[in-house]
Design goal:
Length: 152
């Protein structure tokens, strides 16, 4: 504890940095609490270092609390907006574009299986496709390939 009080500015800065790393790396920026406290602790460490705050634990903790509240008030909405803007576009699968020759007929009512990459996939098509036709995967979902016929 003596080391902490003798090196108050550096301690607050390091603790703030650790809190930011935990928030971003471990929690994936899912909560903002550690982010706000980390920013405030780093700012408090900087203020202690330049001499703008008295070098005692009480003023450092008070400053950290006030700066946490200010950071939360200023940054909550922009961070929440940033977090909620998620792309609705589907991720492109490596399976999309894979071509093969059908072994069985496929239709809206028939969904045969296709063995590929060690997995048995259900084949889905809105149109009827006969066996022996060259097809291409247009979409892949868990355990299923959406396919369409392609010209050779």
């Amino acid at each position: 504890m003596e080391f902490f009080t003798n090196n108050l500015a550096e301690s607050f800065f390091i603790v703030g940095l650790i809190l930011l790393v935990i928030e971003v790396a471990v929690l994936g920026f899912s909560t903002f609490v550690l982010f706000f406290v980390g920013l405030a602790a780093m700012a408090t460490g900087a203020l202690l270092f330049i001499g703008a705050l008295p070098n005692n634990a009480l003023s450092a903790w008070m400053c950290t609390g006030v700066l946490t509240l200010i950071a939360a008030a200023l940054l909550w909405r922009p961070l929440k907006r940033m977090q909620s803007s998620v792309s609705t576009q589907k991720a492109k699968s490596d399976f999309v574009g894979h071509r093969f020759i059908l072994q069985d007929d496929v239709s809206a009512t028939k969904s045969p299986k296709h063995q590929y990459s060690g997995v048995e996939w259900s084949l889905i098509s809105v149109e009827e496709i006969e066996a022996g036709t060259r097809v291409e995967v247009t979409e892949a979902e868990v355990g299923a390939f959406h396919i369409k016929a392609v010209a050779e």
